[in-house]
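Appendix B. Raw example, untouched.
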Amino acid sequence: MRVVITGASSGIGEALARHYAGPRTELGLISRRPPAAAFPGKTVHYPVDVTDAAALARAAADFGIPDLVIANAGVGVGTHGDDLADVDKLRRVLEVNVTGLAATLAAFAPSMRRAGRGTLAGIASVAGFRGLAGNGAYCASKSAVITWMESLRAELYGTGVSVVCVCPGYIDTPMTRVNRYRMPFLLPADEAARRIARVIAAKRRLAVVPWQMAAVSTLLRLTPGWLFDRLARARRASRATSRSEIGTDPISGFSEMGSVPISGRLRLFGFSRVA
């Protein structure tokens, strides 16, 4: 099996690489930093930023036809829509999370389409189902990913190439460990990777991991706007607090991860942490 994973240097991406690695697997790992661990089997690392479409095309040409591509790389940062300075943050989040994902899949899709086989998987987030105060850029980017993957699936229908969109909830990674709030249905990274791999193998069109978060996402989508707004207002954190809900790089202000899941505002629905 030939597998390509972006954002493979840490978090969910590293856990996915660890899951797929083996004597019968050839891994193509795309990340700006080298993976922290060595993996069994054949592994090729491409030190590529997913916003560099030309570099992605070169990596795709070098790797050849994959059986599976997982576009997992992403960044997150707290933002506020009433702050003009945050527009630059929004631009960066969209560039990595949406354009980077699209470029990754587009780099490998043509050869897979010609071969008539393979799976393209995109890692979105439960945060993509509703807009959450203080997390507008991240929520918007993951909502765009969900819609992009749906469009791509329609475009590739009948070609033999499957398209899967995965929306994780809270995953125990270095990025989420800085959160000061309780994270419902938290999954260890390796367990999350196992479940993500399972839904990809089943070629689910849209899957939420874990299943408990599927119930939460359904609740979020079905909550009337007026009620959602009222609950959000009742629990809205201060501007400073909301900015720190997603761990950030102390220099750039951005966090890099496979997927920073839905914010602590799930607490407004009364959910508590389940290990």
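End of appendix B.
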